[in-house]
Amino acid sequence: MKSSRLRVLIAATEIFPMAKTGGLADATAALGAALADLNIDVHFVMPGYPHVLEQQRKIDFQTTLPEIAGHAGGILLSTLTPDSKLPLHLVDLPSVYQNGGGLYVGPDGEERPDNALRFAVLSHVITQLALGELGHAPFDLVHCNDWHTGLTPLMLQNRAPGQAPATVFTIHNMAFQGQCSEEQWAQLEVALSAEQWPRIEYYGSASFLKAGLEFADQLTTVSPRYAEEIQTSEFGFGLEGVLQSRRDRLTGILNGIDTSLWSPESSPWVPRHYSAEDLSAKAFCKQQLQQQLELEPSPTSPLMAFIGRLTWQKMADVLLESIPEYLEREPDRQFVLVGNGDRHLEAAYLALAAEHPGRVAVQIDYTEVLAHRTHAGADILIHGSRFEPCGLTQLYAMRFGTIPVVRPVGGLADSVVDATPDNLATGDATGFYFEQPDSADMLAGIDRAIALYRQPDAWHRLQQTAMQQDFSWDSSARAYLQVYDKACARGS
């Protein structure tokens, strides 16, 4: 007898803590846990990367996969996530996923030329699993995330017309579209009618992202502002027309965060716990961070941090241009960077640190431990973005009483309230804005933040307001349930 609980399969290429390169991993894991708390039967599916398989201590079930796109020898391994203890299915296909490098780049640091194959294979397995063909009961709904899973709604429709599970496709970043040539496409074994090709075609190539946008029952993205922005030419990356045509199926839902983990009161990695009611231990966390990173031990120096990917999107180039002037304006200013990305930017930031010992620290190796300690020890987070679907770093920072300086695009505008005189007076402010994606405006926003930092009482009130914001997943998960209901209703 079929259970009355909604059975949902969440598909992604990275899920924390198994694999992570960015916010996608955190968001999928935390949403799944929040949905489970609402009595949804949640399962995850992701690739079986070598380091993920090495983490597994107990496999509850396994089944042999059929040959997919010429690749045999695959197994679907079923286990539980180590934190939330939710069902997790791993696609173990050595010829596709166990060839060195990272999740999306090869051992040489360059994007893998076979990514189209790697993630088409993933969609094949998601489809089979969702339809109940791999030893598990079928699912009511498949929640696909980003371009890597964009072929899944198309495959489900073609494999089981009128009988397939409902599909929701979440856009985490429109800039990454998963394009492959017609020659590559021919190797992916994806059935496609002549009428369907124009719905996935993008300037002569096949776009996984466009397929997800066209064929999913419902679309979501990770903030209300971004849902509006991606319907414009500035932020739509050539697919704004598709989004405009499906705007009645597009919902912007701001990501939440796991407040049990990202919290100065409970994080396992901060030197000393503190809260909005008692921030005194944050000074100790700052002292420990300065000591760990060999910065000058100064409790009153403004310590600004960048935590994230060194990319054009995150304005890492503009920040690099700005830091020398930032340091020159006041002799006690400090800066720490935790992250990696563009190799040339990495080298330039390392050179900058060498030029300013004791004032600049650069760690080109993101770890959860150092990220938590930096959020706890820094005073200011700099989070510039040319575009930002949601952003999680600013949410983490506010939770730790570290005040974000942001460019108000996408989720940054939805989550941070600018510290204007009026917003400070009403107690609504949580951070600082700068409008233009250039060094002059970025520095102006930072200067505003430091000016308030020099006023301890006002700064303390700002910290408390930021820390008291509710960015838990509960309300976001309930919003996703409403989208799931629409998808299952099949209004198409």
Average pLDDT metric: 96
Radius of gyration equals 23 Å
Helicity range: 25-40%
CATH superfamily of the largest domain: Glycogen Phosphorylase B
- Total discrete domains: 2
Strand order of the largest sheet: 3-4-5-2-1-6-7-11-12
How do the strands and helices of this protein lay out in sequence?
Blueprint: E1 7-11, H1 23-37, E2 41-47, H2 50-55, E3 61-64, E4 75-80, E5 87-92, H3 94-97, H4 115-130, E6 141-145, H5 152-159, E7 166-171, E8 179-180, H6 182-185, H7 197-200, E9 201-202, E10 205-207, H8 208-215, E11 218-221, H9 224-229, H10 240-245, E12 250-252, H11 281-292, E13 303-310, H12 316-329, E14 334-341, H13 343-355, E15 360-363, H14 368-377, E16 380-383, H15 393-399, E17 403-406, H16 410-415, H17 421-426, E18 432-433, H18 439-453, H19 456-467, H20 474-489
Parallel strand pairs: 1-2, 1-6, 2-5, 6-7, 7-11, 11-12, 13-14, 13-16, 14-15, 16-17, 17-18
Antiparallel strand pairs: 3-4, 4-5, 8-10, 9-10
Helix pairs in contact: 1-20, 4-5, 5-8, 11-14, 12-13, 12-18
